[in-house]
Amino acid sequence: MSDTSRIYLQPTPIRIWHWLNAFGIVTLGLTGIQIRFPEYINLFSGYKTAILLHNVAGVVVAASFALWFFYYSFVARNMLKVYVPNKDEVKSGLLRQAKFYLLTYFLGRPNPHHPTPENKFNPMQKSAYLAIMFLLMPLIGLSGILLINIEPMRDLVLMIGGLKILMAIHYILACCLCAFLFTHVYLATLGRTAFAYIKPMWTGWEEEESDDHQHLDHLAPRPN
């Protein structure tokens, strides 16, 4: 059995943010489906209830986003290092990590990225989170704010192209976020065990095997 080391990877504020964000986004997705297709979907007690829950979930996600931004900007002070890939990561790290996800993981090879508190994410994660957190989330939030404040922000809504265009933009952005969510959950299972990357978001600690064959143990056939 190989040796393992424990790394304190996810501080308490980040774990709180993560689960607030996850709960809020799932609620937004479910209520959004009912709002968009009320004639087919009735997950909640009614259309008005779905709208109310959708708006409340939006506030929760906005609050969790503020917590995330405050922590990385003013407490940890490592926002750029954690979320922005450097030149070497863009040049070679993206291809190496993609190869792992698409091929070498299934051959029992180890993950080429070894997380540390200052470098938690691999190059593909950094690139994805950079787009999600700095572009997609703000755009969804802005379009949502406009949708619940149509009258006071009427000029801005008209500048975008009107209510139908704004609703279409909000819907397309939400679909992109949902697609990312499904991908995120799937990739989170590609650890030494299915919950190896999920457990740190509860405990803060991640266990990492020290040998070069950390994936072989769970992929090798078991003796009869």
Can you characterise this structure?
The chain has 224 residues and is mainly alpha-helical. The chain has one domain (4-114, 123-208): Transmembrane di-heme cytochromes, Chain C (Fumarate Reductase Cytochrome B subunit, Up-down Bundle), CATH 1.20.950. It contains nine helices and two strands; from the N terminus they run βααααααααβα. It has helices spanning 12-36, 47-75, 79-83, 87-102, 123-147, 154-160, 163-187, 200-203, 216-219; strands at residues 4-8, 205-209. A two-stranded antiparallel ribbon has the order 1-2. Helix 1 runs antiparallel to helix 2 and helix 5 (123-147) packs antiparallel against helix 7 (163-187). 17% of the residues are buried. Residues 211-224 have low confidence and may be disordered.
Which keywords apply here?
single chain; 224 residues; mainly alpha; Fumarate Reductase Cytochrome B subunit; two-stranded antiparallel sheet; elongated; disordered C terminus
* Low-confidence runs of at least 5 consecutive residues: 211-224
DSSP helical segment count: 9
The backbone outline, from C-alpha atoms, is elongated
* Helical proportion, percent range: 55-70%
- Structural class of the secondary elements? mainly alpha
